[in-house]
Amino acid sequence: MYKLFYALKTASMGVRVMLEEIGTPYELIDTTVAMNEPRPPEQLAINPNGWVPVLAWEGGAMYECAAITMFLCDRHPEAGLAPALDDPARPLYLQTLVYFSNAIQNAYQLTYYPDRFADTPADEPSAKRRGNRRLRETWQVIDDQIGDKEWVLGERFSAADIYLFMLTTWLRSAKGHPAIEAFPNVKRIADIVVQRPSVRLVYTPWIANPDY
């Protein structure tokens, strides 16, 4: 059984969808990302940064959403959520997950946590503006990459589509983020992914209220 340290509105929701898709038993351990609130000691022992997702299992543990996604896909190949090592789509799969993590998620960080990127509070609006520009730039790269393909990797559904959907749920007009409609290929895939039973289970609060 896996243990997933979990909080709403975080990347741990994407990992939970992965676990649902795989169909493996797991336990949710509720936690928080608020820096002024306590976290389970076991979570901090694995990830001293205090963030989620954190995934633990008998004999191991890890953090970072993209890394967990790759790990779960490779550990459970029967779920068919990732191309095999010798599959021609494997490089695009790896490239896209790392781009999601390093580029798009970093852009969100600038808008949600500008204090981490500014020397003074007066500089935080500049960090937010740069983050919103980067969101437009990075989402456009993905929209162009998808083109007229059915899924991120082409004709097959994969973990990359789950990750894409997760990232779209963080878009907030109140923060100056671009609207998902600006990226029609991204929106097309997200609109299909949200219909999956695993996603409807995990993202019930977001489906009821996207600004929750």
Detailed description of the structure:
The chain has helices spanning about 10-20, 40-45, 65-75, 90-110, 125-145, 160-170, 185-195, 195-200, 205-210; strands at about 1-5, 25-30, 55, 60-65. The chain is α+β, with helices and mostly antiparallel strands and about 210 residues long. The protein folds into two domains: about 1-80, Glutaredoxin (3-Layer(aba) Sandwich); about 90-195, Glutathione S-transferase Yfyf (Class Pi), Chain A, domain 2. It has a four-stranded mixed sheet with strand order 2-1-3-4, with helices on one face. Helix 1 (about 10-20) runs parallel beside helix 3, helix 4 packs antiparallel against helix 5 and helix 6 crosses helix 7. The radius of gyration is 17 Å and the shape is globular.
Helices and strands, in order, run as EHEHEEHHHHHHH
CATH class of the largest domain: Mainly Alpha
Major β-sheet, in short? 4 strands, mixed
Amino- and carboxy-terminal Cα gap = 30 Å
Strand order of the biggest β-sheet: 2-1-3-4
Specify the overall morphology.
Answer: globular
Gyration radius over CA: 17 Å
CATH architecture descriptor name of the largest domain: Up-down Bundle
> How big a fraction of the residues is strand?
5-15%
Number of distinct helices: 9
What proportion of the residues is helical, as a percent range? Answer: 40-55%
Number of domains: 2
Q: What is the total tally of β strands? A: 4
Mean of residue pLDDT values: 95
- Contiguous low-pLDDT stretches (5 residues minimum) are none
- Backbone structural class: alpha+beta
Do you know the CATH topology of the largest domain? Glutathione S-transferase Yfyf (Class Pi), Chain A, domain 2
